[in-house]
Amino acid sequence: MKSIMKITYMGGVLCAALMLAGCAGRPGTATVYKPTGIFGGYKDKVLAPNMWEVTGSSNGIAERGFGQNMAAYRAAELAKAAGFSHYEIIDQKGKVSMVGIGYGNANNYAGEQMTLVVRGKSDSSAPTECRAKNASACFTVNVDQAISRLEPLLTFPKGDPRRPEELSPPK
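Above: the chain sequence. Below: its structure as tokens.
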């Protein structure tokens, strides 16, 4: 029984060490803008022609709002690739995860997930449909403005041309 407990403890220590090592060199976030992986990311699926469900997930190392920004940015990419200048958010659902670490009632931010249902469109008119419980959660977004405002807030994988150090001239 003691050997099982020791193996479990050592496995937990190893897991924590690997997680910390994986975060080294990525100040501020271990979640990067890419398809969903162990540290988060985005995923999308086609619901109907020109309609997508987009989810952004981040871990606790990423700043709050990273998952939301990732979902909105991915929605803009999809709409732009389909030839639309705008997209309308017709539903959104989000959740924030907290975990208790330490003594007492200590809760720490452990990440977030945001799911948007969006439809591409060619004008800035109000959404024609709203599935959200609160109508103010449905609105139209300009694709180019979303990309330019959200891109600086995201962390991109090494080698991605949107990564700041990839944009600077070599020394």
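The beta strands are 40-48, 51-59, 86-99, 108-121, 139-142.
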